[in-house]
Specification:
Blueprint: H1 5-25, H2 27-40, H3 46-74, H4 84-108, E1 111-116, E2 134-138, H5 143-154, E3 161-167, H6 174-182, E4 186-188, H7 198-207, E5 213-217, H8 226-238, H9 242-250, H10 259-268, E6 273-280, H11 288-294, E7 299-308, H12 317-343
Parallel strand pairs: 1-7, 2-5, 2-6, 3-4, 3-5
Antiparallel strand pairs: 6-7
Helix pairs in contact: 1-3, 2-3, 3-4, 3-6, 4-5, 7-10, 8-9
Length: about 350
């Protein structure tokens, strides 16, 4: 259970500042220890790179909280936090912070981001006043995907103001807690109270989506693991959804999507275009241990977008569920194809060619 918001708003920043001060005092020791650890760890200077990124992230957290405090003062000590001008200022600050995080990650870990296929960016002119609201439905694959997607939505090519449905535990991060609670987002509680329906909250976020907005939903609800896939299939089987069970069993890289939240968003925002998103390269990073053991370095991350105009989105519940599963099967197939291409041809087959 999360601490109350008032407690988080005091203890979170204090702990963050204390951690930053300790890191500054111990910097020579941390650098030396990381350099020694990098000698025995796989990869080129793994521990040193990770330390560099953590220090950058910590500095940006502190900077972001200072900026948040200034924005609070500018908004009349919080009285005008929810005005359009204040929201734009918060989105602008988030955009710069996320851009700095992603640039640091790409440089320190030598990562390259490639967008495969046709991007939806030509449909956005990169200035406020883009043509349509957007509902973005993404594969769920760890916290790294959230940073990547939100940064892409907010960058200078798109300038979207994202609204996000995410787990409430992420509010333990002081920067996320402060900024995302000041903006139109929804944190799904781990412990549901009587009468709570996340679908109602999602519909509320979607109802007034404007031309600069994008609602980001992860229909799987959690990162893919074999155990979670088994549990998801058992839930479908228990509800007698035999067709959904067969389709879920055939998908290798994703969990079966949950259509209720998507249907709620589509019903509340029938004017919104839909963008489906898949990516590879960050799916195995869910914990600190994952970062230490499987940090991606010197590799390419692949991102793929599919655009569906609002006029082509089915409106019946059954049709929407089938449509969502078909897109998730497309995402699963793309992940398989991309993984095979990254792995290269099988031994002894490098000189073969296939025709269509």
């Amino acid at each position: 259970m999360l601490p109350p918001r008032r407690v988080r708003r005091v203890t979170g920043p204090l702990l963050l500042v204390a951690l930053a001060a300790a890191a500054l005092v111990l910097l020579p020791v941390l650098v030396l220890a990381s350099a020694v650890a990098s000698i025995v760890l796989p990869g080129r200077w793994r521990a040193l790179r990770l330390l560099g990124f953590l220090l950058v992230y910590l500095a940006l957290e502190v900077t972001g909280l200072v900026v948040a405090g200034l924005l609070w003062l500018r908004a009349g000590c919080g009285r005008r936090l929810h005005t359009p001008a204040s929201r734009r200022a918060h989105y602008a600050a988030l955009r710069r912070l996320l851009d700095a995080v992603m640039r640091a990650a790409q440089r320190l870990f030598a990562l390259r981001l490639v967008t495969d296929g046709t991007s939806w960016s030509p449909l956005d002119d990169g200035v406020p006043g883009s043509p349509d609201a957007m509902l973005v439905l993404s594969r769920h694959a760890g916290p790294g995907d959230s940073f990547l997607l939100v940064n892409t939505l907010m960058n200078r090519d798109h300038l979207r103001q994202p609204r996000i449905v995410l787990k409430d535990v992420l509010q333990l991060d002081p920067l996320i807690d402060v900024y995302l609670n000041r903006l139109p987002n929804h944190f799904v509680p781990a412990e549901r109270t009587d009468g709570y329906r996340s679908e109602d909250a999602i519909a509320g976020l979607a109802r007034d989506l404007g031309e600069e907005d994008a609602l980001l939903i992860f229909p799987e609800g959690a990162n893919f693991t074999p155990r979670r896939k088994v549990r998801a299939i058992e839930r479908l089987r228990g509800r007698g959804l035999d067709s959904a069970v067969r389709r879920a069993e055939a998908m290798r890289h994703v969990l079966p999507p949950r259509p209720a939240g998507v249907s709620a968003a589509l019903g509340a925002a029938p004017h919104a275009d839909v963008v489906f998103v898949a990516h590879t390269g960050l799916e195995h990073l869910s914990t600190v241990r994952d970062l230490w053991q499987g940090l991606p370095m010197d590799k390419t991350l692949h991102l793929r977008w599919w655009f569906v105009p609002a006029a082509e989105v089915p409106r019946g519940p059954a049709e929407q569920t089938d449509w969502l599963y078909r897109w998730w099967e497309t995402i699963d197939a793309w992940i398989s194809t991309t993984a095979q291409a990254e792995a290269g041809p099988a031994p002894g087959r490098g000189d073969r060619r296939t025709g269509s």
